[in-house]
């Protein structure tokens, strides 16, 4: 069974601070996605990374896929209250295309 | 393109009843997956349909079932509802060959 462990589980910071969220597994994934989910809504895709060592930037968000394609990180620079939400990583791969989700990191950015 | 839509958005049922949830995927997407999300367990995979055939199934009891129609729309049914079935049920669609899934807003099911 493939598992994705996300850390930290909860994070509360002040506006303007930087933060990093981690997503780790003992399994190799063909791709990894990051989603953000707001209360009562479905997850919204932020990025998909597919190549080991790949780094993608989305404004103040930087995503990295580990060289061995087993882990990923999300770094947010100068966090803003609008970044508040549940950040989920999901690994894909294999013939069944099933996505395996981590349990998420609940981020609160206080003004 | 319109996104994934789910109906209804909210539903309240009592134990023992059954419920049917509906999902319309993004136009052109033939794969539809269903997930259950609870605070304790996170997002758990229920099943995936592709071209009207169930291709994958998660570790849920037989009370949870689904189907997909020729226009790729999908329905999920839960029979004999239990209190523990209270959750946000999410539907996601994707293009064949891609791992990336696009989620709908979910149906919030409350079982009393």
Provide structural commentary.
The complex is a heterodimer of chains A (111) and B (112). Chain A has 111 residues and is mainly β. Helix content of chain A is 0%, strand content 52%. Chain A has no helices and 11 strands. Chain A has strands at residues 5-7, 10-14, 19-24, 31-37, 44-49, 55-58, 61-65, 71-76, 85-92, 100-101, 105-110. In chain A, the strands form 2 sheets. In chain A, strands 2, 4, 5, 9, 10 and 11 form a 6-stranded mixed beta sheet that branches. Chain A is globular and about 40 Å long. The mean pLDDT of chain A is 91. Chain B has 112 residues and is mainly β. Helices cover 0% and strands 54% of the residues of chain B. Chain B has no helices and 11 strands. In chain B, the strands form 2 sheets. In chain B, strands 2, 4, 5, 6, 9, 10 and 11 form a 7-stranded mixed beta sheet that branches. A 4-stranded antiparallel beta sheet of chain B has the order 1-3-8-7, with no helix packed on it. In chain B, β4 and β5 form a beta hairpin. The radius of gyration of chain B is 13 Å and the shape is globular. The model of chain B has no long low-confidence stretch (mean pLDDT 93). The A-B interface holds A 30-31, 33, 35, 40-45, 48, 88, 90, 92-93, 96-104 and B 4, 6, 31, 33, 35, 41-45, 48, 55-56, 58, 88, 90, 92, 94, 99-106, 108.
What topology does this entry show?
The complex is a heterodimer of chains A (111) and B (112).
Chain A: E1 5-7, E2 10-14, E3 19-24, E4 31-37, E5 44-49, E6 55-58, E7 61-65, E8 71-76, E9 85-92, E10 100-101, E11 105-110
Parallel strand pairs in A: 2-11
Antiparallel strand pairs in A: 1-3, 3-8, 4-5, 4-9, 6-7, 7-8, 9-10, 9-11
Chain B: E1 5-7, E2 10-13, E3 19-24, E4 31-38, E5 42-50, E6 53-57, E7 64-68, E8 74-78, E9 87-94, E10 102-103, E11 107-111
Parallel strand pairs in B: 2-11
Antiparallel strand pairs in B: 1-3, 3-8, 4-5, 4-9, 5-6, 7-8, 9-10, 9-11
Total count of helical runs of at least 4 residues of chain B: 0
Q: Main β-sheet of chain A, in a few words?
A: 6 strands, mixed
Shape of chain A: globular
> What would you report as the Rg of chain A, rounded to the nearest angstrom?
13 Å
Low-confidence stretches of chain A: none
Number of helices of chain A: 0
Question: What can be said about the biggest beta sheet of chain B?
Answer: 7 strands, mixed
């Amino acid at each position: 069974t493939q598992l994705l462990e996300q850390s930290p589980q909860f994070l509360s910071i002040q506006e303007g601070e930087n933060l990093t969220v981690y997503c780790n597994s003992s399994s190799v994934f063909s791709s990894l996605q990051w989603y953000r989910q707001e209360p009562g809504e479905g997850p919204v895709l932020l990025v998909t990374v597919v190549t080991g060592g790949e780094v993608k930037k989305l404004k103040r968000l930087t995503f990295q896929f580990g060289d061995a394609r087993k882990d990923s990180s999300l770094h947010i620079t100068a966090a803003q209250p609008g970044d508040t939400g549940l950040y989920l990583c999901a690994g894909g791969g294999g013939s069944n295309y099933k996505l395996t989700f981590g349990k998420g990191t609940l981020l609160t950015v206080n003004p | 393109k319109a996104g994934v839509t789910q109906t209804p958005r909210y539903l309240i049922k009592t134990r023992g009843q059954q419920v049917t949830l509906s999902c319309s995927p993004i136009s052109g997407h033939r794969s539809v997956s269903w997930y259950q999300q609870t605070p304790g367990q996170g997002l758990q995979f229920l099943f995936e349909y592709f071209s009207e055939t169930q291709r994958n199934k998660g570790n849920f009891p037989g009370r949870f079932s689904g189907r997909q129609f020729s226009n790729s729309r999908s329905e999920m049914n839960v029979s004999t509802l239990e209190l523990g079935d209270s959750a946000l049920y999410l539907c996601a669609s994707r293009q064949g060959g891609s791992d990336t899934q696009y989620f709908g807003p979910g149906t919030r099911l409350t079982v009393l």
